[in-house]
Amino acid sequence: MKTRIWIMFWLVALIWGSSFMLIRIGVEAIHPVHLVLIRVGIAAVGLGLVVVVTRQPIPRDWRILLAMVAVGIGNNAIPFTLISWGEQSVESGLTSVLQSTAALFALVVAHFAFKDERITPRKLIGLGLGFAGIVVLASRNWQDGQVITGSLMGQMAIVVASLSYACFTALSRKVLASGTVVPVVLAAITMMAATFFEAAIVLVGGISGAMPLQTPADLTVEILTAVLVLGFVNTFIAYLMFYEIVKGLGAARAAMVTYVVPAVGLLLGVIFLGEILDARIILGAGLIFAGIGIVNLKFLRWQSAKNVKVASVGD
Questions:
Q1: What angle (nearest 5°) sits at the alpha carbon of residue 180, between those of residues 174 and 183?
Q2: Does the pTM exceed 0.70?
Q3: Among the listed residues 262, 289, 283, the one whose alpha carbon sits nearest the alpha carbon of residue 21
Q4: Count of beta carbons in the 10 Å neighbourhood of residue 250
Q5: Among 84, 98, 9, which Cα is nearest to 285's?
Q6: Which residue among 21, 203, 274, 297 is the one 20 to 30 A from 314 at the CA level?
Q7: What residue numbers bound the domain in which 67 lies?
Q8: Counting Cβ atoms within 10 Å, is residue 16 exposed (0-12), middle (13-18) or buried (19+)?
Q9: What is the pLDDT of residue 298?
Q10: What's the total number of domains in the chain?
């Protein structure tokens, strides 16, 4: 049982790490909003079918439903769109590193949202290192005395996406804490909300002339495959696998998959897209990973000790 769960853990890390490469391929020909609409639409249909087939209970409290809609927009639609837009000018590997800062933003958000997760001096050191890494990565946009505006704006969009993840992940945690929502139901409803949100943007953008109403008809097999895999495997299937990991390993260990994803994203970008790992990417990524590690080190030790204690009692 444990072996199967750990295999799923590394599969999810590989799948989610490949998302940045697939997005980079997709936005070469498809508008970022269209790409996100296809992605969340596929996931919404798949997760919705799972909820129906397994007969999961749907909450009827309008406040819970409204909160789930907000999570769908803030934790799926907005960050997915910002990341896809950013990857028009930012390498996939760099995007995976910048997106990992969501763990640092989550620390700040949790300080204000939850009484038991206050910022400590150790966490401040981790935050400082992480954001120093962002500055190092942003400095790559200064070349020959000029700022590469497009790339800088793309990186800023990805960082804002990470902030959005942090804010609305905290809200989803509160929704689940209510005890009235099953995780797969939360995922299905949030994906549906994201789908309607993206469809509205496409419609308004098409009517106003800000973006095309349809995706290009002459898509290559490579681009079409990348987008479909992104929706079906990286969003729908990976979500289902992640919930199994949470059941088997617990939320704390399951969350560690997000620390592996950036490294996978970097490697895949180099291997398959020919992206370059220069000194500033290595230094910036190192600072961000070190910051995340320092922030979580004490918690992971405590969690391990707790698990050992529980195992001893059970024996």
A1: 70
A2: yes
A3: 262
A4: 13
A5: 98
A6: 297
A7: 2-314
A8: buried
A9: 57
A10: 1
DSSP at 27: T
Here the tokens at position 68 are 């789930």
Task: For 177-231, give the DSSP string.
Answer: HTSS--HHHHHHHHHHHHHHHHHHHHHHHHHHTSS-SS--TT--HHHHHHHHHHH
**Residues 99, 262 contacting (CB under 8 angstroms):** yes
Q: Burial, 218: exposed, middle or buried (Cβ in 10 Å; 0-12, 13-18, 19+)? A: exposed
CB 21 within 8 A of CB 222: no
Angle at 54 between CA 50 and CA 59, to 5 degrees: 85
Q: What is the pLDDT of residues 194-247, one digit of tens each?
A: 999 999 999 999 999 989 888 888 889 999 999 999 999 999 999 999 888 888
| CB-based burial label for 79 (10 Å; 0-12, 13-18, 19+) | buried
> Which residues, other chains included, contact 55 with Cβ-Cβ below 8 Å and sequence gap of 6+?
none
Residue the block writes with tokens 């609305």? 168
196-202-208-209 Cα dihedral, nearest 10 degrees: 180
Residue 241 C-beta-side C-alpha neighbours within 13 Å:
21
* CA–CA gap between residue 74 and residue 126 (Å, rounded): 25
